[in-house]
Amino acid sequence: MELKNLMEDQVLNMVNRILKDREGICQCEKCRLDIAAIALNKLKPKYVVTEKGKVYAKTAVLDYQNEANLIVEITKAIKIVGENPRHD
Question: What is the pTM assigned to this prediction?
Answer without folding.
Answer: 0.85
